[in-house]
Amino acid sequence: MKKNTLTFLLLLLQLFASAQKLDRKIDSLLSNVFADKNGPGGAFMVAKAGKPIYQKAFGKANLELNVNMNTSNLFQLGSITKQFTAIAILMLEEKDKLSVSDPISKFIPDYPNGNNITIHQLLNHTSGIKDFTKMKSIAQIAQQNLSPKELVGFFRDEPIDFKPGEKFEYNNSGYAVLGYIIELITQETYENFIQKNIFEKAGMSNSRYANDVAIIQNRAYGYQKKSSQYVNKTKISFSIPYASGALMSTLEDMLKWQNALNQNLFLKSNSVKKAFTKSKLNNGEVVNYGYGWHLLSINNIPTREHGGSIFGFKTMGVYFPNQDIYILGLSNCDCNSPTQVTRDIAKIVIENSKN
User: Which of 34, 44, 63, 254 could disulfide-pair with 58, CB 3.0 to 4.6 Å?
Assistant: First the structure.
């Protein structure tokens, strides 16, 4: 009995020492990225088997009020929003409201070339539709409150960049169209659909559609760097990023999201698997993107990844499905991209898990 107790205690000590070593390595990386303790910062999390094993915040959530960042702050997610849009589409498919093989003309009859562009191609960025965020005229609408129909109308008549299915090219317009299709089918706003069918279902009580006017508790304020000075982020209307980039969340809620996906809370396993399956172009070339996730690898270990960028915020999430390890980085300045450091943390965590 005593021998078993001693063995158990030694194991606990080893685990504790390993956790401390991991913390020190991650701290060292992040302290370099967020070296300015009085500047904007970020919040980072590592979770294993659905539970956080590392959570820490750096820098300031609000520069003017000198408020420190904490791990409960809300951040704008930018393009991580696409994950939620993709899952919403698959939820509608499971209810026989649509099929990902449907042409978009089925829902938007007068969409140019709509007979040849499928929902699948919108989801995996192979539609060829012009990306409205790359259009010079976007400045004209950036602060306008547009309806989804008006937003889609802004780019729908632009010439296509390539034939549908011919190549992969990351595209925000496709996800704007997807948001519009969700609204046409459900007869409710994208915001309400996501709130009711995803956030509330997963218990994501601190997640929401972004809003610069509403009072939002624990909001991290967004900043940009001009020359050597920080400034408040450029204002935009959130009807513009819409279903491609307008959601907000926290570390805790994003872990609830990841766990809910793993537990098939929203979809049956064969449906959710579509989001994590690579597809092929017309010529047979493999696309390393599912629906709302890049399907890549780190140290030859498969990952599901996505970043986000919107005025004042940058985000990055990496998930190792086979190890059930999730790494998330959220930053409140677009001068501090968490993309590379989040992937660097992922490498450290994977190496540590082997020991």
Answer: 34
